[in-house]
Specification:
This protein has 420 residues and is of the alpha+beta class. The protein has 13 helices and 18 strands. Helix 3 packs antiparallel against helix 4, helix 5 crosses helix 12 and helix 7 packs across helix 12.
Length: 420
């Protein structure tokens, strides 16, 4: 969240940032409410000062004069109460407005279209008709969309046999790489989170319609592991020498995808429930953009180990996620679909989430506490990675060659179609 002082003192910066994001909202209401809040605060402070002075006068005045002064004190107290209620109402409306403002784009973010930064690997040459992963999965008997819909409705799938094993292999492989080679600490957080944690991560109020909620307990199903990982340090000050903090977590993510009109709704590409390995870091502000590039390489390493052609894309300002100051996507080539599909978003949120969650650190024992910078990355989305593996390693007979790095986890080098 942006601080009220910053918004009030730099309204043109906010307007320019919103313009770059193609966000048409007007901040005039925020500025008006801020003026009201300042005026209420000044009047309340003045009344408290007058009440204090009056109480001192009552203490030293004669008994005969006290009833009149007590009446004046009562009237001032009532005025204070009335103004405090009005101020609280203004503050509530102001906080809701501030919570809905997105992060400011970093100066290096391209204004307008996304930019392809680099490509890795060449899409393979196939001399047979390529199939999309959902058809491959059905022939292999490993992706069962029909039973998923029977159990939970559309955009849910059941993985069977080697499909379930391949999903588990990908999760284990990614966790092993990130913990052993990249220095992350593995965490298995709760799948349910409080509203305060969702607000801190920037998921609410912006994405209220996209999340699954247990309304009786006011707990939310995890939409992405960065939320509970951020919650680990909610409302805390990190000690000197703690940073950087590096977490990796495998969680199941739940998203309603309300209103989604994407064409990528078949197979494993846009499900309401999916597994994801998430990378999350808390770092000192001066390090965060170096760490962003580092995390891009950490996520890319998985694609390189799997030998999946992909490209690196810097998102333009209109496509920036709500909480991000800069985002770089990894898009994997899907030969069956003949298109690139996003498999990881790596974002630097700067102090946006830390401010909302009140997460600070001290550089030294006697230094002033300041907000950390937070960064997150999918390392990677499991279902989409599996889809890319199936499409990239398909053979003319419908079998799938297992990538070399996954064979120790799978116990086989080939998946063959189910005999009908």
């Amino acid at each position: 969240m942006l601080s009220l002082d910053y918004v009030y003192q730099h309204p043109q910066d906010i307007r320019e940032a919103l313009r770059k994001r193609h966000d048409e909202r007007d901040i005039d209401d925020i500025l008006r409410l801020t003026e009201q809040k300042r005026n209420f605060s000044m009047r309340i402070d003045g009344l408290y000062a007058a009440l204090k002075q009056l109480k001192e006068q009552i203490r030293v005045t004669s008994v005969e004069e006290r009833p009149k002064l007590n009446q004046q004190a009562k009237a001032i107290s009532q005025d204070i109460r009335r103004l405090e209620l009005q101020n609280a109402d203004v503050d509530t409306r102001l906080q809701l407005q501030l919570q809905s403002l997105p992060n400011l784009p970093h100066h290096s973010v391209p204004e307008g279209d996304d930019q392809i930064v680099k490509n890795w690997g060449q899409p393979g040459l196939f001399h047979f008709e390529l199939l999309p992963h959902w058809e491959l999965g059905e022939r292999l008997g490993i992706i069962d969309a029909e039973s998923g819909a029977k159990i939970a409705g559309s955009r849910f799938v059941t993985l069977r046999g080697a499909g379930a094993r391949l999903e588990r292999a990908l999760i284990s492989f990614m966790l092993d790489i990130h913990t052993r080679e990249h220095g992350y600490t593995e965490v298995m957080p709760p799948e349910l989170v409080k509203r305060s944690i969702m607000l801190g991560a920037g998921q609410l109020p912006k994405f209220e319609e996209q999340v699954y909620v247990c309304s009786v307990d006011e707990l939310y199903l995890n939409p992405t592991a960065e939320v509970p990982l951020l919650g680990l340090h909610w409302n805390s000050i990190l000690s000197p020498g703690t940073l950087p903090v590096r977490y990796v977590a495998w969680t199941t993510a739940f998203r309603r995808e309300a209103g989604s009109a994407s064409r990528l709704t078949r197979g494993l590409l846009r499900l309401h429930q999916f597994n994801k390995v998430e990378l999350f870091q808390l770092v000192a502000p001066e390090d965060s953009y170096d760490v962003l590039e580092q995390m891009v390489e950490h996520a890319r390493a998985i694609l390189q180990h799997l030998e999946l052609p992909h490209r690196v894309v810097t998102l333009g300002t209109p496509n920036l996620p709500f909480a991000a100051a800069k985002t770089i996507d990894l898009e994997v080539w899907m030969p069956g679909l003949k298109s690139y599909v996003e498999v990881s978003s790596i974002s630097n949120c700067e102090s946006f989430q830390a401010y909302r969650s009140n997460i600070k650190y001290r550089a030294s024992s006697n230094s002033h506490a300041q907000y950390v910078h937070t960064l997150n990355a999918a390392g990677l989305a499991i279902g989409r990675t599996m889809a890319a593996v199936l499409e990239t390693y398909q053979q003319a007979d419908g079998s799938i060659v297992i990538p070399k790095v996954l064979r120790p986890y799978m116990g086989t080098s080939l998946l063959s179609p189910v005999n009908n």
